[in-house]
């Protein structure tokens, strides 16, 4: 896609221990001048292609789109959002199904189901039903592996926390924020929530290009057990919002409700990121902060073997989840091959053209 490398890329949903965790509500922020297009259709019906064309049109208009990808297929677009937040388009089917709250005023439903020949689909009905069911079973199996991995990662963080000087972590984060953020403000900052990584069919996938687009300087917190980074990132997030900065908070796909992995402050071109053996990414840091400086080494040594075992076992479980995701992706590809022959893509192009005219 033209200009793809210059657009921030994210996930807005992830396979998590308790099921699919979605932040797609971030796309549907009503605005007096806003437009939101909800795309409805099955696999292979042209949703991702339509979203790519919308992203290109937004980019040509200088609206710097954000690209939201599918965690089940990292090459497939799930949504596009303009930089000003006034224009969005999203795949509104499961697992991130959405219905309009202000139909015709703010949201417009784009029905791609009207572009297929239902008789052709019904001829392959048995196969299609079987493939959908198999796809769901594989995703459920992947989530069970991820849930088991989460228990072990949580145990590693708990064991690590026993040896962490929590007050020292907070003081370091506050001191760093005072130097970098400087100002105090009566205005409270706003927050976007995103995922920069996810467990996908390609493994633990990370959008390494996005931090390079957003940041000139990155503080990297090197923390394998995950105890120090939890305290540090929560403190940075709170300070940035209280200082009146608009931020992008990236949640951990394994602990989406509890753990923050990265915080970006676009206005300052500044980022705070977590690094560990599960996050292998090509980011040149401005400064690395090692978690061991906040750790009582003698107390950590007592739990070191258990922490290593928990981290290694969690990695093995995540690897099994990835295998399930790969198989699910192959099943999804087969589903697409069932739908594509039934589609009249000239009708899809007509619907795409109407959306592009509105940009």
SSE inventory with pairings:
Blueprint: E1 9-11, E2 13-16, E3 19-22, E4 35-40, H1 47-60, E5 66-70, E6 73-81, E7 87-91, E8 107-111, H2 118-123, H3 125-161, H4 166-181, E9 191-194, E10 197-200, E11 203-206, H5 209-214, E12 217-222, H6 227-242, E13 247-251, E14 260-265, E15 270-275, E16 287-290, H7 297-339, H8 345-358
Parallel strand pairs: 1-5, 4-7, 4-8, 9-13, 12-15, 12-16
Antiparallel strand pairs: 2-3, 5-6, 6-7, 10-11, 13-14, 14-15
Task: Please describe what this structure looks like.
By secondary structure, this protein is of the alpha/beta class. The chain has 8 helices and 16 strands. The chain has helices spanning 47-60, 118-123, 125-161, 166-181, 209-214, 227-242, 297-339, 345-358, and strands at 9-11, 13-16, 19-22, 35-40, 66-70, 73-81, 87-91, 107-111, 191-194, 197-200, 203-206, 217-222, 247-251, 260-265, 270-275, 287-290. Helix 1 runs parallel beside helix 8 (345-358) and helix 4 runs parallel beside helix 6 (227-242).
């Amino acid at each position: 896609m033209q200009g793809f490398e210059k657009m921030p890329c994210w996930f807005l949903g992830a396979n998590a221990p308790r099921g699919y965790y979605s932040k797609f509500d971030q796309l549907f922020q009503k605005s007096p001048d806003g437009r939101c297009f909800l795309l409805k259709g099955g696999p292979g019906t042209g949703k991702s292609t339509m979203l790519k064309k919308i992203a290109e049109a937004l980019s040509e208009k200088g609206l710097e789109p954000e690209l939201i990808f599918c965690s089940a297929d990292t090459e497939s677009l799930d949504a596009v959002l303009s930089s000003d937040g006034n224009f969005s388009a999203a795949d509104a089917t499961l697992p991130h199904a959405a219905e309009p709250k202000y139909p015709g005023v703010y949201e417009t439903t784009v029905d791609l189901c009207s572009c297929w020949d239902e008789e052709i689909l019904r001829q392959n009905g048995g196969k299609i039903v079987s493939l959908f069911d198999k796809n769901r079973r594989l995703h459920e199996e992947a989530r069970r592996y991820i849930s088991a991995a989460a228990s072990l990662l949580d145990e590693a963080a708990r064991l690590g926390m026993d040896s962490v000087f929590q007050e020292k972590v907070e003081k370091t984060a506050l001191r760093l924020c005072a130097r970098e953020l400087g100002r105090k403000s009566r205005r409270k900052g706003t927050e976007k929530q995103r995922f920069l990584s996810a467990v996908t069919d390609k493994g633990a996938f990370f959008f390494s290009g996005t931090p390079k687009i957003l940041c000139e300087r990155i503080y990297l917190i090197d923390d394998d057990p995950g105890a120090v980074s939890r305290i540090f990132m929560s403190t940075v997030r709170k300070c940035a919002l209280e200082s009146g900065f608009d931020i992008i908070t990236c949640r951990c796909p394994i602990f989406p409700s509890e753990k923050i992995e990265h915080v970006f402050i676009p206005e300052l071109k500044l980022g705070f990121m977590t690094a560990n053996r599960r996050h292998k990414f090509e980011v040149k840091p401005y400064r690395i902060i090692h978690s061991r400086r906040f750790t009582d080494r003698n107390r950590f040594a007592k739990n070191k073997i258990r922490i290593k075992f928990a981290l290694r076992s969690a990695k093995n479980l995540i690897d099994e989840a990835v295998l399930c995701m790969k198989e699910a992706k192959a099943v999804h590809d087969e589903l697409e091959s069932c739908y594509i022959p039934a589609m009249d893509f000239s009708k899809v192009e007509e619907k795409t053209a109407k959306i592009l005219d509105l940009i």
